[in-house]
Design brief:
single chain, 616 residues, alpha+beta, Jelly Rolls, 4 domains, 26% strand, globular, beta-galactosidase activity, glycosidase, Gly_Hdrlase_35_cat, Glycoside_Hdrlase_35
């Protein structure tokens, strides 16, 4: 009997311990509660994928010194699921577990926004490009093929997050259920309301069945809660400055009680190519922050630190005037912590305000990472990029094939067609996605640009002539109804004078997932695409900003790292080069220049004052 009694006591103690552990963080009595006490969540969003891994801790210390107690991050499905069945959680900036554990070491909670859809001005809103290869699959709908893919992703993601949840002794306190689904519902009147409801409920169920414990939340504009809210998840607001509106909307969908949280409090905004930088004053943001603090509204700055859309990760929007609006490489976002991690007036204003309202200690601001200038990098090798691209094996088909049909996600494809007869007239590429430079017999003759709704031009092809079309994917649309139409390359027939050009199309893939290798040094005619390369040494290491003011359009690699796109339409005229990717000896630079309006021999790295003057 004594043994049995002891076992009963032991089981009771274990049960009590497990119950207590499960209640480390919860939503109860209209509050967030941590270890049984009410707590406010003052968070800043920053994405590990947009920050070089060696700088993660510096950025976290910056967040902590601004007075916040949490960071929020999206998880980008396509960043980790690099091909069907292939997952990467360790290379480069991809170690999500290390990022979360590092935040815990810095005394920060973590809020995870796993999607599957994330928006975030990120390529395809986080979806893998190859989902579009399945003709049965319908993005973000109550569609079995899509839901099966989502389930695979969510279960894989859960293996990374489950041991780091706060109720398991970690610091992950909340998980988002889908993202801004209310806005998607409002734009897709062609889909039945019942299908929308079924979809979001199935995603929520998948998250819970994967072993993620929550608490869960949704995130929408307050006027869109009807489409986005899910029973059992806390509804939070995006961009809601009016506290009364916030409380009214949350009460309606959350048992007439809080907590009240603005999950996306915008201290800045996104930027597109060929549009002015967006700027929001520090005073306005500090004033709105104080409104939240006075009214006990929790918040998450989106973004507290934007970082950079390295490589081909930037997404795109669209509007009535532009079929696509590609996002620039910089994701500075006019955030309190600038793209290279500097203190801004906005940062200082918020920090001083937080000191007045929070009871916990706010540490000193960490030292800024050193900035260097590079007076001149010699580009002593260059090669005709068309020739280089055509060194790969061509895919031949009767009609142009999309990137997806060619099993390519990003970068460029060169389409080539030979003509046995001369033809003059209007070249028409209505299926252009997104930017094309056109060549006849190896000579540049023009460009077409989906951003400006330019899909046709006059052309003259001689007897036995060749037409070459170099097409760039400038980022799949990440927001709105059209994100379900996201194939790239040339996705429909090419015509001249309304006559379809068919038969004998050659396609050369140029994904540039690695820096292209320059095999020779040759003269390249102006306006032909060219690959430049060079090597350089440094006396000291630090961050710098490549000066792209006199260049046309292209991408830059440094020591194998793709810094992202540049384009002379602006507003961005520099590329952020993190010092952690540099070394004292043997640095290598490779530039793929698409427009090449005049030959280059050098490039330089800018100092801070010049950079600031360019951003005004």
């Amino acid at each position: 009997m004594r043994i049995l009694s002891n076992l009963i006591v032991l089981f009771c103690l274990v049960g009590f311990s497990m119950q207590a552990q499960k209640e480390v963080f919860k939503i109860e009595d209209g509050n967030f509660q941590y270890k049984g006490e009410p707590i406010h969540i003052y968070s800043g969003e920053m994405h590990y994928s947009r920050i070089p891994k060696p700088y993660w801790r510096h950025r976290m210390k910056m967040v902590k010194a601004m007075g916040l107690n949490a960071i929020t991050t999206y998880v980008f499905w396509n960043y980790h699921n690099t091909a069907p069945g292939e997952w990467d959680w360790t290379s480069g900036n991809k170690n999500l577990q290390e990022y979360i554990k590092m935040a815990e070491e810095e005394g920060l909670f973590v809020i995870v926004r796993p999607g599957p859809y994330v928006c975030a001005e990120w390529e395809f809103g986080g979806y893998p490009w190859w989902l579009q290869k399945n003709p049965e699959l319908k993005i973000r709908q109550n569609n079995e093929a899509f839901l099966d893919s989502c389930r695979t992703y969510i279960n894989e993601l859960a293996t990374q997050i489950k041991p780091l949840q706060v109720n398991k002794g970690g610091n992950v306190i909340m998980v988002q259920a889908e993202n801004e689904f209310g806005s998607f519902v409002s734009q897709r009147e062609d889909i039945a309301t019942e299908d929308h409801k079924a979809y979001k409920q199935k995603i929520f169920k998948m998250l819970k069945e994967s072993g993620l414990e929550g608490p869960f939340f949704t995130s929408d504009g307050t006027w869109l809660f009807e489409g986005g809210a899910v029973e059992g998840a806390l509804p939070t607001a995006n961009g809601e400055n009016n506290v009364n509106n916030l409380k009214k909307a949350v009460d309606k969908y959350h048992n007439n009680e809080g907590p009240y949280m603005v999950a996306e409090f915008y201290p800045g905004w996104l930027d597109h190519w060929a549009e002015p930088f967006t700027r929001i004053g520090a005073d306005a943001i500090a004033k709105q922050t104080e409104v939240y603090l006075k009214n006990e509204v929790d918040f998450n700055f989106y973004m507290v630190h934007g970082g950079t859309n390295f490589a081909f990760t930037s997404g795109a929007n669209y509007n009535e005037d532009h079929d696509i609006q590609p996002d620039i490489t910089s994701y500075d976002y006019d955030a309190p912590i600038s793209e290279p991690g500097w203190v801004t007036p906005k940062y200082t204003a918020i920090r001083e305000l937080m000191k007045k309202y929070v009871a916990y200690d706010i540490p000193e601001i960490p030292k800024q990472i050193p900035v260097i200038s590079i007076s001149e990098i010699k580009l002593d090798k260059k090669q005709n990029a068309l020739k280089l691209i055509k060194e790969s094996e061509a895919v031949v088909a009767d009609a142009p094939m999309s990137f997806e049909a060619l099993d390519q996600g990003y970068g460029y494809v060169l389409y080539r067609k030979k003509f046995t007869q001369p033809i003059n007239g209007k070249l028409q590429i209505p299926g252009l996605r997104d930017f094309a430079t056109i060549y006849v017999n190896g000579k540049y003759v023009g460009k077409l640009n989906r951003m400006n709704n330019e899909y046709e031009m006059d052309i003259k092809i001689p007897f036995n002539g060749s037409l070459e079309i170099l097409v760039e994917n400038m980022g799949r649309i990440n927001y709105g109804a059209k994100m379900t139409e996201n194939k790239k390359g040339i996705i429909s027939a090419v015509s001249i004078n309304d006559y379809e050009i068919s038969g004998g199309w050659e396609m050369y893939k140029a994904p540039f997932d690695q820096a292209p290798q320059v095999n020779a040094s040759e003269e390249v005619k102006d306006k032909l695409p060219v690959v430049y390369s060079g090597n350089f040494d440094l006396n000291e290491i630090g961050d710098t900003f490549l000066d792209m003011q006199d260049w046309g359009k292209g991408i830059v690699f440094i020591n194998g790292h793709n810094l992202g796109r540049y384009w002379n339409v602006g507003p961005q005229q520099t590329l952020y080069l993190p010092g952690c990717w540099l070394k004292e000896k043997g640095n290598e630079i490779t530039i793929f220049e698409q427009l090449n309006e005049d030959s280059k021999s050098t490039i330089s790295g800018l100092v801070k004052p010049i950079l600031e003057s360019l951003s005004q």
